[in-house]
């Protein structure tokens, strides 16, 4: 099966109308370049609480619904799937979900992924958890015969999630990030933490720049899945959006801190290198060896030469 994916990057802000105009523009660009699905970053429509704005106090939920409807209407008009980062309101005093909406080519909302591992400590008053309620479900859906899944930002730190998606047959993972809109002071602190002496040994000068892309390449290769990584381009961004194929090779990357659309082709019939194909299923079942075990005294005696 083939699927043409547009990984979209825009400078997310607290201005819902501005975010919406950019999303609609990039949807049109994606369609004009032959894409069948447009993938957007974390909270790209709503803005990201704690980063783009202080909190959800006074948040205009009615406007967010209206703007989401505009996205759905254009998706139907363009016959384009949309993977849309946003915020999903809950009832009462419950904090909302940090979500990605899955909108099909008829403009229908067919699923919603809620960020399972919101960053923060056990108090629930720091990081994402100060603003969002975590979810507890995986989202698996099919686009043009390709099985797809979704994760959001900090979820990347939990390889168990990638493995579970693999177990469920996912071939393409949409991973939406918001690793950006960082002030010069915050960026300096990130770089100071790493230290100039270590930067030369790594692909980046901050932890997000080093660990996030590296984890995506590893997740792709470990689980033999395609990965679309969409990030905000709001200055200062930690890294630009990119796309990875199942052998861990990055096939495209946008420019840092610049809006853009990266178009990539998923071809599930393409034969790519997969060093673990013979034994991955066994490892997933909890059998942690390849080949056939031997029964040998010298194998059992592990404290003797």
Which features does this protein show?
Nitrilase/N-carbamoyl-D-aminoacid amidohydrolase, 8 helices, 22% strand, six-stranded mixed beta sheet, 28% helix, alpha/beta
Give structural notes.
28% of the residues lie in helices and 22% in strands. It has helices at residues 16-32, 61-78, 159-167, 184-194, 196-199, 207-223, 280-284, 297-300, and strands at residues 2-9, 37-39, 81-88, 97-103, 109-114, 140-143, 146-152, 172-176, 226-230, 242-244, 250-253, 260-267. It is globular and about 70 Å long.
Strand order, main sheet: write it out.
5-4-3-2-1-12
Principal-axis shape? globular
Uncertain regions: pLDDT < 50 for 5+ in a row? none
Q: Give the rounded overall mean pLDDT.
A: 97
| Distance between the ends | 53 Å
Helix content: 25-40%
CATH topology: Nitrilase/N-carbamoyl-D-aminoacid amidohydrolase
Cα Rg: 21 Å
Q: How much β-strand is present in the residues?
A: 15-25%
In total, the number of strands is: 12
Count up the helices.
8
Please render the helix and strand layout as text.
Blueprint: E1 2-9, H1 16-32, E2 37-39, H2 61-78, E3 81-88, E4 97-103, E5 109-114, E6 140-143, E7 146-152, H3 159-167, E8 172-176, H4 184-194, H5 196-199, H6 207-223, E9 226-230, E10 242-244, E11 250-253, E12 260-267, H7 280-284, H8 297-300
Parallel strand pairs: 1-2, 2-3, 7-8, 8-9
Antiparallel strand pairs: 1-12, 3-4, 4-5, 6-7, 9-10, 10-11
